[in-house]
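To fix ideas, we now present one chain and its tokenised fold:
***
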Amino acid sequence: MTDSLIFVSQAVLLILGCLFFAVGTLGLFRFSDTLTRIHALTKVDNLGLGFIVLALLPLAPSLAGGLKTLLIWAAALAASATSAHLIARAVHVRPEPPNAGEVEHD
């Protein structure tokens, strides 16, 4: 009984993680502004990675393996936050051209 419950919860968490990754990718393609694209990627993809890590924790061979998985998640969170901050800073330092958000239709 508990094995099937763990399996179902892992499947749900993996599906949720993949859905969050898909929404983050969709946000990357749909949003026009650099800052909103970065926001979609950092927030939604980190949450998706969190769901996938939670789904993989019961499969860890030991406590040390589970802690390593959580540390990988923490490193990915720190890396995405740092890269988003650097990209946002670069956007604010470099002024955008006047027609940056407009698309010409011929």
